[in-house]
């Protein structure tokens, strides 16, 4: 028996989310960002954000023992983050630094348009392999890490630290999982050679869980740029990425060494690609299961009730948390995908994920009572 089900490491921040009146609706971002315009809001929500709190706290809500491994600053924002993490009982693996401030994001999400993030990575830019608590990792069944594009030390020098970290943890016999964020094209991360960085890292990654946009952006950057440049004004890039490109790229990643690939596709649902999953199941103490091997599946999204939606930030992380929890609980792949989609949907109804999110039993009841479609690709 391991002390932890999962260590969740990487990007940690505070999200500041302006609360827009439900009656306030716009057609495009260009209608919103107008010089001199004043827009009244109903307040500001302050919540934990990033892969570490979002995925970690959701997994804890789902009944798993988690160790959160992140970095915050000794500043006002850091004090807020520390108290919130302590209140949730997950402060043990969070360290503080004087070298940089705590990361925060301003999530602009008025009704009618997709979210816009203003991100200050703060001390995540100095978070490095030396901040990984390998003693805790050794006591865990699974290691999950996010988001390399916002963690500078893991992208410089051709991703040397990213590959070294995953190689070391793979040798420890721990299941490895990786989540991504969309690089800012104008930043150092946006100019990194992600296909080369990831090609050297894939052999040590068991589970990869990007969004569709992240998948195509990091592995097919030229095609992603071409799709973006040809988009009509204010249209969604997700709708413009053809399924054939997703399948081609997903197959390439499985061929490169990843055992399980979950691709989050928002309102379209989630894709699953797998290779030979027996080594992952062996690490978890499970017998081989042919149902997991060499699969290509699309699970449609569960419909969201518009009147209940409070916040779209963290939906992808929650879907990942549900998927990883299902894998740790030895669920079949189709059921794991349903947990991912219903978890992502239910997170839309929450501001404070840990306190408002459905528990595992609640999600199980939703899966049993609500229909959605599984498509075998």
Could you explain how this protein is built, in words?
- The strands form two sheets. A ten-stranded mixed sheet has the order 5-4-1-8-9-10-11-12-13-14, sandwiched between helices.
- The protein has a domain at 259-377: Ribokinase (UDP-N-acetylmuramoyl-L-alanine:D-glutamate ligase, 3-Layer(aba) Sandwich).
- With 377 residues, the chain is an alpha/beta fold.
- The mean pLDDT is 94.
- The two termini are 37 Å apart.
- It has 15 helices and 14 strands.
Keywords, separated by commas or semicolons:
377 residues; alpha/beta; UDP-N-acetylmuramoyl-L-alanine:D-glutamate ligase; ten-stranded mixed sheet; four-stranded mixed sheet; 37% helix; globular
Stretches where pLDDT is under 50 for at least 5 consecutive residues are: none
The coarse overall form would be: globular
Question: How much of the polypeptide forms β-strand, as a percent range?
Answer: 15-25%
Give the radius of gyration.
20 Å
Q: Give the ordered list of helices and strands.
A: EEHEHEHEEEHEHEHEHHHHEEHEHHHHE
Main pleated sheet = 10 strands, mixed
CATH topology of the domain at 259-377: UDP-N-acetylmuramoyl-L-alanine:D-glutamate ligase
List the helices and strands and how they pair.
Blueprint: E1 4-10, E2 13-18, H1 29-32, E3 44-49, H2 51-61, E4 66-73, H3 76-87, E5 94-97, E6 104-108, E7 116-120, H4 134-138, E8 140-146, H5 156-171, E9 175-178, H6 194-201, E10 207-208, H7 212-219, H8 221-229, H9 237-240, H10 243-255, E11 260-264, E12 270-274, H11 278-283, E13 296-299, H12 315-328, H13 333-347, H14 353-356, H15 360-369, E14 374-376
Parallel strand pairs: 1-4, 1-8, 2-6, 4-5, 8-9, 9-10, 10-11
Antiparallel strand pairs: 2-3, 6-7, 11-12, 12-13, 13-14
Helix pairs in contact: 2-12, 5-6, 7-8, 7-10, 12-13, 13-15
